[in-house]
Amino acid sequence: MAILVTGSSGHLGEALMRTLRAQKQLVTGLDVMPGTYTDRVGSVADPAAAALAMRGVVTVIHTATLHKPHVVSHARDAFVETNVMGTLVLLEEAARVGVKSFVMTSTTSTFGDALKPPSGAPAAWIDEQVVPVPKNIYGVTKTAAEDLCRLFFRNEQLPCIVLRTSRFFPEVDDDPGVAAAFPGDNLKANEYLYRRVSIEDVVDAHLLAAERAPQIGFGKYIISATTPFLPEDAAELRTDAAAVVARRVPGWRDLYAEFGWRMSPSIDRVYDNALARKELGWRPKWDFAAVITRLRETGDIRGPLAKMIGEKGYHPGRVGFCSNLPA
């Protein structure tokens, strides 16, 4: 089966290309930026580039995007061109050639203001029933792209799966205040409790979505590490997150002390991946407990695939940019 991966020079795109090539799959990478895993250089918003890349393709995995850190460096129309028009161009071409599975990488950032409960309220429990309230052009354009996927399933019978991924990139947090508050790996380890996922598990989710799309038809799923928390923990997570973590995942305190790390004092939202596990059959391997075990054994929270890809940073000033680092 021929597969097209857009955003193949980006973090997730490269991870997918590496994995699919290792599996001896027939796969083409499309990105506006040249790269080792990019076979065709071109923008997803260019119909001619999309048509060339789509020849013989039966599965599209669309990871290309402008993302949250580009809100400060790119005009709003660049987000519309890449995230909305790029998705529309790909969907139209996919429908024209009879693609069997279309998987779009979206982001938990689409939830926007729904992620921020008011002072004194419990942590927000985020599942697929929560209505997005986008707070910037990134969130607006990703929700628009999601709606296009739904439209093409409705009107063109194109099977589409939308995966709202939480954080998986290795770069320093784009919020300077957050980045200054914790050492980088300390912050990322904490986030596995409620808002982060390993690149290996993200790749698995995309490949499962591509396989299951014809049976599901259309679906949206949160892709984040399995949280140890339960909804009844939500109030205490806002006031004493460390106490909840100690109760749900014993054994991390001594290791944190050894590394000079600390737990987040308050957690404001929890991503619930139960629907993806149920309907996609997704079995993420790397939750907080597993990451802590790896840290204890290796001194590193990263897995082999993350180490191979490394950090990519952000490509500045390019309309049609096709990397894929969700917020």
Describe the global form.
globular
Radius of gyration: 19 Å
CATH architecture field: 3-Layer(aba) Sandwich
Distance between the termini: 31 Å
Report on this structure.
The chain has 327 residues and is of the alpha/beta class. It has a single domain, classed as NAD(P)-binding Rossmann-like Domain (Rossmann fold, 3-Layer(aba) Sandwich). It has 13 helices and 9 strands. The strands form 2 sheets. Strands 3-2-1-4-5-7-8 form a 7-stranded parallel beta sheet, with helices on both faces. Strand 4, helix 3 and strand 5 form a beta-alpha-beta unit. Helix 1 crosses helix 7 and helix 3 packs parallel to helix 4.
In short:
The protein has helices at about 10-20, 45-55, 75-95, 135-155, 175-180, 185-190, 200-215, 235-240, 240-250, 255-260, 275-280, 290-300, 305-310; strands at about 1-5, 25-30, 40, 60, 100-105, 125, 160-165, 220-225, 270.
Detail the topology: elements first, then pairings.
Blueprint lengths: L1 E5 L4 H12 L3 E6 L8 E2 L5 H7 L5 E4 L13 H22 L3 E7 L16 E3 L10 H20 L3 E6 L10 H6 L2 H8 L7 H18 L1 E6 L10 H6 L1 H8 L4 H7 L9 E3 L2 H6 L8 H11 L5 H6 L18
Parallel strand pairs: 1-2, 1-4, 2-3, 4-5, 5-7, 6-9, 7-8
Can you give keywords for this protein?
globular, Rossmann fold, 327 residues, single chain, two-stranded parallel sheet, 13% strand, alpha/beta
